[in-house]
Design brief:
seven-stranded mixed sheet, 12 helices, FAD/NAD(P)-binding domain, six-stranded antiparallel sheet
């Protein structure tokens, strides 16, 4: 079955949903098709905020693993990535973070002309529908619903007071372009349920008939003829080969793992690697799959004496509170607290701390009911950089993901310093009424035993789900840049990439809101082309 459209988008995640809807709004005379590998997002694990980790390793998840990481005790780390309408915005922790304004100025300085803070900030405002804006710099009419926590636990507020006692003062707004201090996270919820990119952007466009979506579409390759992308080959759920012709452009929105993977399967990427796999080289771009960056997090956990923590979320009482009133632990996004602290070489925050009124370990895959608080420092600007490679020329073969966590030992040293501050916060007087008793790293690990703390980081460090950079944009003279600042693939006409893979460097914060911003800005570039 063949079809023809003006634009063919691959991926219905944060970027694809935003881009499809905005393209349809800007150019209602042009047709948009979105091919999505996953299926429906209609599932309780998607809708209920605190249940997001229950979606991991289900049909809603690509269920990826990294290569063995030598600096992390040789472990292969689990990487959840969303596989449904909404993509990872349907299984994330719903945190709304813009990042630091200096991040985007850095993008521009590295050759991504036009992507500095002053030029991207209006797109954050345009997409943001903030119910409780801290100041006028926030948008209130955008489609992406943003609100305060519906029912934060008292422990979360106590954690903010504990940070203040350790010198990290409360913040009135962590999204003003200069985030510092501690606060409750704002979250992408409508009422007390998740508001994903599919809810905000794609579903309204589908209902209006301006965007066509094909779920369970496994893309085989981008079809490139005489140096131009002319369509996409894909396979349906029940087999059969299909071709979606693109009159204007093919746009990859498949994320930092799958966008470079699809480029390489289509013959665009490092020539030697493609030849080794028997893939004809249509465009030699050595930067495809390189520059992989991610946020690594390590946790401190303390048992507490407190009712109503996340360990009670799946009890009958917790379920009734949520169903009847939209409150209680099931209404929590888990990571209720955020703090930007420390200072890196640029004089900007070194760590982002995520705090939860519950026992959160190993991605929440266990069923730990111990009343606890968890506090994890995240290394905001890792020096360690990895890459994505194909493991096979077969579509069904998972890619080789090698973040090379800790390959620069300074990253591990910074996380050791972060975990030391986390332990001090958990032991602060503001939390004393809950009688915290450290579980991890554990009291056997002395405060000044740096070797033991380093071993804790190596044994327990995990992804915070923010891979970026593998199809980075840059200046024409930059041989490693895959895209120009208009997100066009070098050497292939009619082909762009619009997702977190285009980011030259990782933002200091969560990546959902920056990806939405990026796609919203890209829509105008594409519509005007």
């Amino acid at each position: 079955m063949d079809s023809c459209h003006d634009y063919v988008l691959i991926g219905a995640g944060s970027a694809g949903c935003t881009l499809a809807a905005e393209l349809a709004r800007l150019r209602p005379d042009r047709s948009v098709l979105v091919l999505e590998a996953g299926g429906s997002d209609r599932h309780p694990f998607v809708r209920i905020p605190a249940a997001f980790s229950r979606a991991f390793q289900t049909r809603l998840d690509w269920n990826l693993y990294t290569a063995s990481q030598p600096a992390l005790d040789g472990r292969r780390l689990y990487w959840p990535r969303g596989k449904s309408l909404g993509g990872s915005s349907s299984i994330n922790a719903m945190i709304y973070q813009r990042g630091h304004g200096a991040d985007y100025d850095d993008w521009a300085a590295r050759g991504a002309e036009g992507w500095n803070w002053d030029q991207v900030e209006p797109h954050f405002r345009a997409t943001e529908g903030n119910q409780h804006p801290p100041d006028p710099s926030h948008g209130t009419t955008g489609a992406l619903r943003v609100r305060d926590q519906p029912d934060p636990h008292p422990l979360s507020r106590a954690m903010i007071a504990a940070f203040a006692e350790r010198g990290v003062l409360p913040s009135a707004d962590l999204n003003n372009g200069n985030p510092r201090g501690a606060a409750l996270n704002q979250v992408t919820l409508r009422g007390s349920r998740r508001w994903s990119a599919a809810d905000a952007f794609l579903r309204p466009a589908m209902e209006q008939g301006t965007v066509q979506v094909q779920p369970r579409a496994s893309v085989k390759r981008v079809v490139i003829e005489r140096g131009r992308a002319v369509g996409v080959e894909w396979r349906g759920r029940w087999g059969g080969q299909h071709l979606a012709h693109a009159r204007r452009e093919v746009i990859l929105c498949a994320g930092a793992v799958h966008s470079p993977t699809l480029l390489m399967l289509s013959g665009v990427g490092p020539a030697e690697h493609l030849r080794e796999l028997g893939i004809p080289v249509l465009a030699s771009l050595p930067g495809v799959g390189e520059n992989l960056q991610d946020h690594l997090v390590v946790g401190a956990i303390a048992a507490v004496r407190a009712p109503g923590t996340l360990g009670e979320a799946l009890t009958l009482r917790g379920a009734l509170r949520y169903l009847l009133r939209g409150r209680g632990p099931l209404a929590s996004n888990v990571a209720e607290v955020c703090a930007f602290a420390g200072e890196d070489d640029a004089g900007l925050p070194a760590w982002q701390f995520h705090g939860a009124p519950g026992y959160f370990k190993n991605h929440g895959l266990g069923r730990e009911t111990t009343p606890a608080i968890s506090l994890g420092p995240v290394l905001l600007r890792p020096r360690s950089v990895g890459r994505i490679r194909l493991s096979s020329a077969e579509l069904s073969a998972p890619p080789e993901i090698d973040p090379r966590y800790g390959s620069d030992p300074r990253d591990l040293d910074s996380l050791v310093a972060g975990i030391r501050l986390a332990r001090r916060v958990l032991a602060a007087p503001a939390l004393a009424p809950w009688h915290p008793e450290e579980v991890l790293p554990g009291l056997a690990c002395a405060e000044d035993d740096l070797d033991a703390l380093r071993a804790h980081v190596r044994a327990t460090g995990e992804t915070l789900y923010h891979p970026v950079g593998t199809c980075r944009m840059g200046a024409a003279a930059d041989p490693g840049a895959v895209l120009d600042p208009q997100l066009r693939v070098r050497g292939v006409a009619g082909l762009r990439v619009v997702d977190a893979s285009v980011m030259p460097v990782i933002p200091r914060g969560n990546t959902h809101a920056p990806t939405v911003m990026l796609a919203h800005r890209a829509a105008r570039m594409i519509a005007d082309a």
